Amino acid sequence: MSIANKQTLATAKNLIIILSSILCVCLKLQPSHINCHPDTNSPLGNITISPNLAILPDKLCFVWISIRDTNLRKFNLPKYHRYGIELRTTKFSSHALICILLSGDIATNPGPNTAPSTGLNVLYLNARSIKAFVPLDDDPSRKICKMSILQELVYSNDYDVVSICETWLNDSVMSAEILTGYNIYRKDRPGRTGGGVLIAVKSDIRSSHRKDLERDNIEFAVVELVKDYNKSVILYTVYLPELQQDELHQLNSSLQENSESASVVVVGDFNLPTLNWSPDESSLEHNWGSTENNEFCILMKDNFLQQFIKGPTHIAGNKLDLLLSNWPEMIEHVSTLTPKESTFPSDHYLVNFSIRLKFKRARRVQRKAYNYKRADFQDLHRLLQNATLDIPLSDNINISWSRWKDLFLAAVEKCVPVKVIKDTNSPPWIDGEIRHLMRKKYRALKNYRKTRSEERKKKLRSLSNSMKILVRRKHRDYLHKIEGSFSENPKLFWNYHKALLHHRSGVVSIITSNEITAKTPAEKAELFNTYFCSVFTSPSAVSSLPSSPIRSDIEISDIELTVEEVSACLSSLDTSKATGPDGIPARILKECSTEIAPSLCTLFNHSLRIGRFPAEWKNADVTPVHKKDNKEPAENYRPISLLPIVSKVMERCVCNRFYSHVSHLITSLQHGFMRNRSCVTQLLSVLHSIGKSLDQNTQTDILYLDFAKAFDCVDHVILIEKLKWYGVTGNLLNWFTDYLSDRSQRVVIEGVASRYLPVTSGVPQGSIVGPLLFVIFINDLPDIIQEQTRTGLFADDTKLYRSVKSPSDCESLQHDISNLNNWSHNSNMKFNASKCKVLTITRKKSPVITDYRLGNVILQRAHQEKDLGIIVKSNLSWDSHIFSIVSKANKMLGILKRTCPLIRDTKVRRTLYLTLVKSKLCYATEVWSPANVKLQVALERVQRRATRWILKSKVGEMSYEDRLKTLNLLPLTYDREIRDLVLAYKCIFGHTDLNIEHFVSFIHHNRTRTQNPSLMLKSPYCRTSTFQGSFFNRIVKTWNNVGKIASPEKFASLTIFKSFLHVTYTALVNSTFNVDMACTWSLTRDCPCHRS
């Protein structure tokens, strides 16, 4: 017999002996009856007990206690419900033995619980606006946002859950700025100021937004707090300002939708001051008054709710805020704090309570990273110089790469130590000193709850005040550090604001896809990876690809890189980029670029020579990033891929060479991923043509087409065939073929990685060569479109537009759509017909309207559509777009005012404004710059508010003109003119790939009074102000005026020209600009008061 079998047999014998002993003891026990007594101490005056438990032998007591009693305790019984049994045994030893056997679950009379709570610490408050500003306690002349006070309150008490009524929030406030380290679930009041509710749950607690339990017309939010063994607590936060019977009825119906065994907690402001509570304030007595009171009584009884707050909750002495639950044993340590005690400005008391259940916290993800502060880079340079990284090359590129990697990492490990980093959800200013004081405070709180003496109460208050002061001081010190790092360490400065503005939500309790639910990190990683890979397509047969003529007579079969090229790419690496699956960070590659460039160049050339790409470079780590809407569906996430940085260095070198071969073969209609082309150049060329038709009173139909997962669905077989059209042959063709084949990806989430799954289609996301390959793949699309129908391309963003004078033009456009649909099928790609739109540009009262079809789907018509970030309307007006960007800019300015009140440095504030606010007002101004004064004023008001914030100036203290001079800023009207002139310079002098002669005409005679006659433009004839305001028409007058005042030397280079413009417009601010006179808002002042 084997050793394992002997051990198994011995274990079985021991188990039999133990069971026999227990059975013998049970047989010795004498049967007795359970005596049930009414609980005379209970206010209810009676008890309820299951009839089948009236008689029970002693020997089955342990069965009842371990099973039946546990089940009973799972029911949500009234607060004063009593149940139990009396055990009577004939022998004391038997009684003692039963107690020992049952010591794992003694529930009949457990006594007081002195163990530390492992539940949730919850804060509830009625904020009366958390975005309002109130005077500082220590300096009433200065104001601080209540959001900052809320953060100090929450962080100093380390609350797990925060419920807030009357948030007064709207879409101008980002959830990320409210509480760092918390998942925010909110329901704002739409359309008007006030109201709103919010629930914030620590990111390490599994939670989900239960929108299915919410109601559109009632202000309450519902969150499910998931605990161990898939149990959960349903938390409602309610605000009922103008209470009506229907509102309570809908809240009741929501509560009724929970399962009978659900644990429900309801907290909020019910505004029912006339309710008649029982002496202990836990239940309602007779309420024969208002209909609302009666409806609320029904709600409490229907859901077996009890109330836990003692005394008033409003400074006027009323009880408006209530805490309800259907499980009394779950709620403990309920207390209230006046606004003065809590230092939070409100007219309601703050409510603290605990949910006495054990919740499993998400583990902190640990990862290893190089400790650059302790690195010895000089020694690393010396080791790499002496080491032989020129490894022997093998026909197996994987072996060659593995040898180089091992040698390089061996040298790195000797000079750069490794540290373990634990991800944290707390703000960066919460340090060890704060956590130490927090532990002292919790010990004092625990002692006070044991014995509520005045001495312990005084000590607890003292520690609480010290905690608030310390958190406030640490926060201010951290902001001062951020402010001081602006010049010395800008990375720290921008990381702080990036984390604030681009906050990624924490742990999501469940992820769903195709009716599959994932709960554990491993399950979620697998589910995400399965969904992301489901969009890939299978390769098609080459025979299905239509024949096309060879587009290049010049073949490219080999590329040989130089050391200088590799070194330049290594030196230009962005060290902030994340490390790929190979574990080699960009910081070390850049630091050692000189030493490793020769050996890497040899490895890269060997890869190109044999036409093979290392297998490890084909693996991608994917991180899911939430896009929009609910966080539970996997469909609402997009994948972000991380590739090995060394592979991207090689791709950059190859792409630079390959681009020069293929760039002139790419259609001029493609503006994506092409040098000297951009969103602006594409929009200008398309909208100028459409505006010209509108000026001639001709209708134009635009079809905005959307490919479904375009970059992920590129067919590798078809792409390789198309590369042959462009002269790619030999080793380079083999290299591209191997580069695309046998790729795989895995999803990494919460520190857990899924298994690798194959990537069967698409260009590699996050790669350097991928975008250029996609442009080549889609390059033949315009060939199938008729000449009278024009195409606009920016990567996969495609639009067709055609002048419509009769129904036959619509039929021709429909024919082009059908051809395009056939092209997509032949290319193994699909359109997302639900996102394709039709926009008719016209001034006619009776335009030609036709239903366009993509396959069997009728395309949806729109009155306006967002085109490359610009809102295009059916009349080519820009009011909708301008109002949209003004709203976004004001929102961002409000965020800065709320989150940076302690940053006082003017230079820092100015940079924040230019980077985060003004950038939103300046994107593609060449396309939409308004001629309407009202729209100009709307844009300028944003900067007027911003300059007051930067200079900490109140309204009326300093004029707008003086603020501009102090900050060395230009009015936005001047800024837009400068951008117009710079783009015109680029077009005229060939800095952009846009033929200026297709849009403007030059004056070829010398009868002009100007220093630059060859640069003068002809004034166009326009019938409408809309077309007159388009870029290529409005720029003529401004450009000619610059030509009159600028010497030829000012046009020598783009840098000189920009400098000249800045000096010229700055002089206008100092001499001419008047915010109240619109005629001074331009270099061209064609008005009676300025006309000479």
UniProtKB/TrEMBL annotation:
Tell me where the transmembrane regions lie. Answer: none
Lineage top rank: taxon = Eukaryota
The GO terms describing molecular function are:
catalytic activity
Q: Please give the name of this protein.
A: Uncharacterized protein
Which species expresses this protein natively? Paramuricea clavata (Red gorgonian)
Upper taxonomic lineage: Eukaryota, Metazoa, Cnidaria, Anthozoa, Octocorallia
